[in-house]
User: Fold this.
Amino acid sequence: MIVIKLTAAAILVFIILKGTNVLSYTIIKKSVLKSRVWDLNICCGGTDGGGVNCDIEMHSDGLPNFMLTEDIYNLPFEDKQFVNVLTSHTVEHIDDPQAFIDELQRVGENVTILIPPLWDLTAAFNFLEHKWLFLTFRTKVSKLPRHIRLPLSDWCHKKYGQRIKA
Assistant:
């Protein structure tokens, strides 16, 4: 009986963790993407924002208006060239989140940032891929929230490499 209760509890925890991750990374992200055409979209993965899609790596063939960039801290765009800029689930991977956001604010008038919120435990505390923990319960923000280096991320990335390079 105890084994059945523990198994049921483990299954429930898994469902909750998976559900919060799907809500954060899929449902909210799709909603934000559909809310407007994004003049500049810098995201991890093959996401089409409707305008210029920019990344340091080609994630999928056929992404429209894709532009490969070598340096996210010095984007090849004019000041305020874009009205609406989106970065989704990217800033948690990089070395200097504030410098990246400063650069997005240089090239864009309105910057929207999607980050793993604290309630998405599997993403927020994913030290295998992420470097930063954002101290907020919001997924969609316009300013970079307070953040701290994820415990074990430096050691893990040094020993095994970061699974997503940014």
Remarks:
- The helical segments are 2-34, 97-107, 121-124, 153-160.
- The CA atoms of residues 91 and 100 lie 8 Å apart.
- The domain at 2-160 is CATH 3.40.50 (Rossmann fold).
